[in-house]
Design goal:
The protein is α/β, with parallel strands linked by helices and about 250 residues long. Helix content is about 35%, strand content about 20%. Strands 1, 2, 3, 4, 5, 6, 7 and 8 form an 8-stranded mixed β-sheet that branches.
Length: about 250
């Protein structure tokens, strides 16, 4: 079976992705490190600009972070413990049996999973952990939640790539041919301004499709509707994304 073509929904939005995507909790890296058989090397596949890789560099001696998008890798700040590489998840280029942990955060739904799982098995040390991590639609306090849901489901909803359904299902719909480990109860939490939330919506892959189909961006109208219920633009509201996991020991 040949390598699947790379579905690149993110290179054009790489700077916005780096600026506006949420940050994983520090507890995530520690929870994964506790499961791993050692803390020598973590491989983070589909790393984007390195959100999770930077956290993994805390407990792990070395992190190799790969992404098929050169534009995403270009947005990754250098780190002395992270080797950022332009490479598909299905072909990391790492030696056999070298990694204590293999992760894919908000990325596995884009992979050729059969090839990725074969690669994970190849690079895994005995007892290494494979972790697929995802987060779905954020939760907001107050009336802003309804405005966000309308934009997500009704305005840009028809333009989400079909793979998005796996994210909304917490990755339970992805094939996962492994005995599963219990998942930690973790979430991404932040306090965001109006501009933070609009900037985040601007990174959505569905927005690219909506712009192409409609001939204009629906983001300004969303920003206007959100501002009407937000209050002062600088007001920070609590936002939360529960994390979903598929975890296995290889």
């Amino acid at each position: 079976m040949g390598e699947a073509p790379f579905k690149d929904h993110f290179s054009s939005a790489a700077p916005g992705y780096a600026a506006h995507r949420p940050t994983y909790p520090a507890a995530l890296a520690e929870a994964l490190a506790e499961l791993a058989p050692g803390r020598g090397l973590a491989l983070d596949c589909g790393c984007g600009n390195g959100q999770l890789a930077r956290l993994l560099a805390g407990p792990f001696g070395r992190v190799v972070a790969t992404d098929a998008s050169a534009a995403q890798i270009a947005e990754a700040p250098p780190h002395p413990k992270i080797d950022f590489r332009v490479a598909p998840a299905e072909a990391s280029g790492l030696p056999t049996a070298c990694a204590d942990l293999i992760t894919a955060a908000q990325a596995a739904h884009w992979f050729d999973l059969a090839l990725f799982y074969a690669e994970a098995r190849r690079v895994a040390r005995p007892g290494a952990v494979l972790a697929l991590i995802s987060y779905g639609v954020l939760h907001l306090d107050g009336a802003a939640e309804a405005v966000l849901r309308h934009f997500y489901t009704q305005v840009v909803g028809p333009y989400w790539p079909p793979e998005r359904a796996h994210v909304e299902a917490g990755y339970r719909t992805l094939p996962f041919p492994f005995a599963e480990l219990p998942a930690p109860d973790l979430a991404i939490e932040a306090a965001w301004s109006l501009d933070d939330l609009v900037g985040y919506a601007g990174t959505w892959s569905a927005l690219r499709g909506a712009e192409a189909a409609l001939g204009k961006s629906p983001l300004p109208d969303f920003a206007r509707d959100l501002a009407a219920v937000w209050g002062e633009p600088e007001t920070r509201r609590r936002v939360r994304w529960p994390l979903a996991f598929r975890l296995a020991r290889l």
